Amino acid sequence: MPDSIVQTPPSHPDPAAAQRAPRPAAGDRLTLEIVDLAFGGEGVGRSGDFVVFVPFTCPGDRVEVKVTEVKSSFGRAQLIRILTPAPERVEPRCEYFTECGGCQYQHIDYAAQLRWKHRQITELFRRVGGFEATTIASVVPCPQPYEYRNRILVRSQWNKPAQKLNLGFVRADCGLVCDIRSCAIAEPALNEAITHWRQNPPPKGGIKTLLRIPPEGWEVPEHSFFQNNFFLLPALLDGVRNRLRDSGVKHLLDIYCGVGFFAISLADAVTSFTGVELDAPAIRAARKNQASRGITNGEFIAGDADFVLPTVLQRLDASQSSVLLDPPRVGCHPPSLEVLRQAGPAQILYVSCHPATLARDLKVLCAGGRYRLAQVEPFDMFPQTQHVECVADLRLAAPL
C-alpha cells in the first residue's frame, strides 16, 4: 500500500539507457510506464526487459515504484506516486481502496474495466487452452457497478498495538484485518448490517460473520451458494437459457446445482432436468424451491458429482442432453471431465467465476477434437474487482 499517491510533473528517461539498465533489486526505486493489466489486477511495467507487476496502476500511467520482490523472470513493486495519470484513471469511490483486499479496479473507468477483462480472458484462453479470440464475446456490463454485492464475509481481529478490535476485511498487503465502516460495492442494506455489527461486535478476534441479503422467493441456507449480484443475475440466466435453447436438447443435467437456481429457472426450456449437489442443506432447499413453484418435470439428487455423474448420464439420451457445470473456483475434478468425454452429451454449458480453471478444463474436454468451443460469454458479476463470470458453450464434435 503506497504511503501517498500524488501527481508530479513527468520526466523522460533515455529509452536506450533503460534497455541497458541492470536487473533491479528489492528496495530499488524505479520510474515505469504501465503498458498492460495482468490477469489478477496488477499493472505491468518493464525495467529494460525485466517485467515488474505493480498493484493499483492503470495502463497509460507513468509511475514511481519501490521494488518489493525479485524473482528470476519478474518482480513486484509498491506504488509510490503517479507521475502522469492514464486517461482511463478515475478517483476511487472507497476510502479503503488499496488497503482492503476486496477491490482491484476502482481506479479504472468502468468501460475500461470491461475492455481489459475481455482482453485478459482472450489472452488467458489463447495461452492456456489454445482457443481462438473469436470465441470470446464482449463482457456483459453490470447495470450497477457499485452497491451490488448481496453477500459479504466480515472478520474480527485483535489489534494488539492499538489495543482494539479491528472489524472488517482482510487487507490486500498482508493477513491483517482492515477496519472498515462501510463497503462501496455492497448493497446499502449490507452497509446498514455492517453498522449494526460494529455496534454489537464479536466478543473476540478470529470470528467470521456472514452478512447476506436473501434472494426473494428462494430458500438459501446460510452457508449455501447463491450468486452475489442480483442486478446482473437475470442477464446471466438469459445467457445460459439462450445457449441451452440454441442446442435444441430435451434434457438438462445440472451438476453442482446448489439450491436449484439454474435447473428450476430453466425447467420450462427442457422436457426434464436433474440437479446434483453435495451440500445436503442446499439440496433440501432445492427441493423446497421446486415444490413452491409447482415444477414437476425434474428431480434433485444429493451426492458427489464424481460418483453420481456416471449413473445419471447412463439414464439419459446423450444426443438429447445438455450438462450444466457450475463448480467452485477450483473447477471440475479430472474424473468427472473424463466421464463427460466418454458419455458425450450434445452440449456442455460451463459456468465459472475463475477463467483460468475454466480454460484448463475446457482444454481437457476439447482434447482430440471431442468437443468444440462455440462461445464464451463473460458477465461482469464483480465490478471493481479482478473477477468475472463466464458461460462457455461446448458442442459435441467428434467420436472418441
User: In DSSP terms, counting alpha (H) and pi (I) runs of 4 or more, how many helices?
Assistant: 9
Low-confidence stretches: 1-12
Q: In CATH terms, what is the fold-level topology of the largest domain?
A: Rossmann fold
What is the average per-residue confidence, as pLDDT, rounded to a whole number?
Answer: 94
Using only C-alpha atoms, the radius of gyration works out to 23 Å
The spatial strand order of the largest sheet comes to: 12-11-10-13-14-16-15
Shape: globular
Biggest pleated-sheet summary: 7 strands, mixed
CATH homology superfamily of the largest domain: Vaccinia Virus protein VP39
| Cα end-to-end separation | 52 Å
Helix content percent band: 25-40%
The tally of beta strands, per DSSP, is 16
Question: What is the count of distinct domains?
Answer: 3
Structural class of the secondary elements?
alpha/beta
